[in-house]
Amino acid sequence: MTNSVYKVMQERKSVRKYDPGFKISADELRTILLEATSAPSSSNLQPWRFLVIQDEAKKKDLRKIANNQEQIETASAVIAVLGDTKMYEKTEEIYMKNVAEGHMEHERAALLIQNAQNLYPQLPEEILTNIATFDAGLISMQIMLLAKEHGYDTVPMGGFDKVKFAEYFNLEENVKPMLLISIGKGTAPAYGSSRLDIDDITTFI
C-alpha cells in the first residue's frame, strides 16, 4: 500500500529528541487542530478542548510536573488535550450549526438536542469523564497523524500529574487534562517497535 494515509501512519513515530530552536507558528498549530476536529465524538458533542503551550517559562514549569520529560521543554509546543465533562452545554449550538450548514433538517436536530439534553446532564461524572477520555483519544491520534503530514514529529504523554496540571493552568472543574502531545522538529530518529501478530489478537466469528 502506498496511499498517503498508510504512508503517514507508518512514518509517524514517537520522537523524544527535538530541536529547541525550531518554532511552529500559532497559525499552523491552529490549522492542525482545526483539521483534526473532523474526528468523531459521542453524539457529536466534541468534548475536546486544547491548551497549546509555547511559552518557554510555562514549558519549563510543566516539565517539573510531567516526570521531567525532556521533550516537554525542547519541542516547539505542547498540546494539552483536555476533556469537558459538561460538553452537553454546547448541544444546541452544535446541532443548530448542523442545520445552518445543511447537514440535517431542523426537526431532526431538535429531536437530537432534546435527547442529548435529557440524557447527558443526568449521567454520573465518572461516565462523562470516560466519554470525554475516549473522544480525546480519537482526536489525539488525528492530531499526531496530521502533524506528521505537515512535516512535524510528535510524542503522546500520559505520564504527568493531572491534579497539579489542572491547578497550575487553573482549569475549571469540568475540564479534565487527558493527554500531552509534544510537537516539533525531531533531531534523532525514533526507535522502531514491533507489533503483536494480528492472528494472535483477532478472532473472526
Describe this structure as you would to a colleague.
The chain has 205 residues and is an alpha+beta fold. The mean pLDDT is 96. Helices cover 45% and strands 14% of the residues. Strands 1-2-4-3 form a four-stranded antiparallel β-sheet, sandwiched between helices. α2 (26-36) crosses α7 (125-149) and α5 (91-100) packs antiparallel against α6. It has nine helices and four strands. The longest helix has 25 residues, at 125-149. It has a domain at 4-39 and 46-86 and 129-189: NADH Oxidase, CATH 3.40.109. This is NAD(P)H nitroreductase. It holds the Pfam family Nitroreductase.
Describe the structure concisely for a colleague.
The protein has 205 residues and is α+β, with helices and mostly antiparallel strands.
Structural class: alpha+beta
- Which of globular, elongated, flat, extended, rod-shaped describes the shape? globular
Strand order of the largest sheet: 1-2-4-3
Number of strands: 4
Protein name: NAD(P)H nitroreductase
InterPro entries: Nitroreductase (IPR029479), Nitroreductase-like (IPR000415)
Family: Belongs to the nitroreductase family.
Organism: Rummeliibacillus stabekisii
List keywords for this structure.
4-stranded antiparallel β-sheet, single chain, NADH Oxidase, 9 helices, alpha+beta, oxidoreductase activity
SSE map:
Blueprint lengths: L3 H8 L14 H11 L11 E6 L2 H9 L5 H5 L2 E8 L6 H10 L5 H14 L5 H25 L3 E5 L4 H7 L6 E10 L13 H4 L4
Antiparallel strand pairs: 1-2, 2-4, 3-4
Helix pairs in contact: 2-7, 5-6
